[in-house]
Amino acid sequence: MSTRNPRVRLVLVTVVTALYAVSVSCGGGGGGGGGPKPLVPTFTPSNASPGADTVSMQAGTVSGETFNVDIRVTDTNAFFGAAFSVTFDPAVLRYNGMGDAASFLRDNGAVPYFQASQSPAGTIVAVATRKNPDPGVDVTGTRTLVQLSFTALKTSAGSPMAFSGSLEVCSDAIDPQTNQCVPITVTWSGGTARVN
Amino acid sequence: MTATRLPVLLLAGALAVLPAAAGIKYVNKSGDDATADGTPAHPFLTIQAALDAAASGDEIRVGVGTYNECPVMAINDLILVSEESIQSGTNASTIIDATGACAPGDLGGVSLSHLSELRGFTVRGASVSGVYGFGSVRITNNLIRNNSADLGAGVYLYAFPDYPASVTTYVEDNTIDSNTAATEGGGVWVYTQAVSGQSRSYRIEGNTIRNNSASLRGGGILAFSSTGIGGSAAIRITRNTIQGNGTQTAGATYYAGGGGVYASTFGYGTETIEIDNNTISTNDSADIGGGAMAWAQALGDAQHTLDVHDNAFSGNTSVYDGGGADIRLRAVDLSFGNAPSMQVEVAGNTFTGNSTQDPQYFGGGGLLASVETYRTTRTQFGFRLRSNQFVGNTAPVAAGLSMYVVADDENPQVANEFSPTEAAIDSSNNLVANNVAQDPGGGTFGGGLAAFLTAVGDATAQADVDLATVGGNTADLTGGIEISPFTDVGATSGVEGLADFTLSNSIVSSNVGIGVGGPGGANLTTDFAYNDVFGNSGGNFENTLTDPTGTQGNVSVEPDLDPDYFPSECSPTIDAGDPAADYSMEPEPNGRRINMGDLGGTTLAVPALADVDGDAAVDGVDVLRIATSFGTTTGQVGFLDAADLDRNGVVDGDDLSYVAADFGHRCP
Hints:
The complex is a heterodimer of chains A (about 200) and B (about 675). Chain A is mainly beta. Chain A is built from 1 helix and 11 strands, in the order αβββββββββββ. In chain A, strands 1, 2, 3, 4, 5, 6, 7, 8, 9, 10 and 11 form an 11-stranded mixed β-sheet that branches. The longest helix of chain A is centred in the first third of the chain and has 20 residues, at about 5-25. With about 675 residues, chain B is mostly beta strands. Chain B has a 16-stranded parallel β-sheet. Chain B has a 15-stranded parallel β-sheet with strand order 3-5-8-11-15-19-23-27-31-35-39-43-47-50-53, with no helix packed on it. At the A-B interface, strand 3, strand 5, strand 6 and strand 8 of A face helix 4 of B.
């Protein structure tokens, strides 16, 4: 039977998983406890209640050993885009990619630009921005800019995750002297990943 | 005088008024010449009998078997083809074995007349040329082997200077193997002659020419072009495999050598020789030009072109000069003509693993390029070396590339009549790497390249090396570049000649020995601009030269090249060439400035890092700069010049794509 259709493969995985669950719940398999213990990641932000003009890491969804760190913006006017880097311990976490589907930059049908790349290992270089002539976004409360996905690789009592490198937030105003954006001064706030 | 059947052939051709209708005549080993009518039911036994019975336009089809004869076409316009060739494209089983069969005066194992064709035979054993072709012939898909002659042991091609008026000849897809010429042209011999109003075109294409030999020149191919005023000749040698051929005579003159190919123009008309896309390997010359010897010499008002491009020269050897190839231009009193022109270009070739031996000459393990002019100004000629690779060759001197330039205003004719005499070689975009100058006697120099500049009288000998990468070469003295001038005062003019060397936009690094040097002295001028000369074990510049580092854009920094001499995107040689040089061919973003090195100015140049904010890293800030000025054009509010990476006057998706491609890259 071909399994090239991913939908078929998903069904198979679901069935196999269901059968495994049934066998465990029925006491099948005898002996138990021989496999590796699943890792359980959690993310704790440095500031769970950020103030205005803050770009922060916040805990996102968790699915097994994979979890998201949301990059969120709090109470900022004319937010046009942000450039940032995130550092983490690549021995503890594997970076999977950056999600932008929920980004507030997409408000009002705008087509923003997102890119992220891990280089070198343990450093994610990222950007999320609108493009001229789209206006900046007035962010009220705390909203999600992008989401970074990680998978836990080994246990850690506390692995720091921090913003680093060239950090910049642009407003939609242009400095006529430099033809560059007028920056918004923000506070950058990271967090810690724990893996049990 | 030895009689030949050639005059008969010509007379018959000339008198043919109404050719018979084209037909097919058959030959096979069960035929009978006495009763044959050429039909399948009554074929001829011999090829000669069928040819004798044929009319112009006929096709003679020959069955498999061995035919011990030397067939001669006595009329023009015939097709001689093997049945196996028609049926399966092969040639091994239909054999014309000329051993002991040729009559006195026969010129070939098979003699082809004007407008005729030979296809699908094995031709062997002739003590004259294997195949002789007169006028326009087509020789296709034959195996021509083990023939011996004075000239053109495998194939001999000829036409009179004035007959036929037009010649178009093809030698295609043959294997020409193990033929031996007592003088020249072991595999193929072509001699074009054309007088006013006549044209000659010879194409030698797609053949395998191997293991042939000639005593004097042209072990594999000899192609000789000679025209009178108003005549035209073109020889194209293309897509052949020319391998294991050789010459044996060490004459040490211009007129010997060319283990694989010897090609020459010489005349007053329009002549073109093109050698392109061949694989030329493991040929050997006891004189010069192991793989190929090609030279152009125009007379009077001539227009000559010699174009050697996109060939692979490897593993060839010579005794004196030009292990891979020896390419020369010689101009004597060209100003006597109305608008003479000689153009030689050597471009896109690779020269790898070739060698030449004798330390008393001018070396050129990969290539010896030579220009000699006598009372001729530069407007009359051009010699260009462009986008070649010289890698891993050996010679006692000038292991990769030898540039031998002679300008003589004195000897032997009237001095100063067309002063100043000029001789020059222009080199650009060449890679010269990992060559070794070696000799048991020591004192080797020019591990990469050497420029021998000789000027006598009111004359200038010049070599211009632009956009070169010279790296990893080895010599006892100058591992990278040797500048060797010789100038003398003209006996008549009292003026001393000038040797002039220019090095620009080039990288000279990691050579074993001195980077750039020479003996100095003589009347030498040098110009160094926008070069990176770095990390040469014997010092970057010999003390006979003034070290130009820090002036005219010259630097000495690690060029950051990979083992194939390809610069990294962080190389300081990127966008560091002459700001006035043409960068337009470099891929975007090209920084609006040419790169140093052999890839500079080309489509293969390494693009500048798409670093908008100039911090040596491509990151989100660079994207922000583009995003905030996105869609703006030059002069508009918000237009950021640095964000317009491709300099097209608008910040757009292309610019964003350049940043996207480099995103996350960082230079140390």
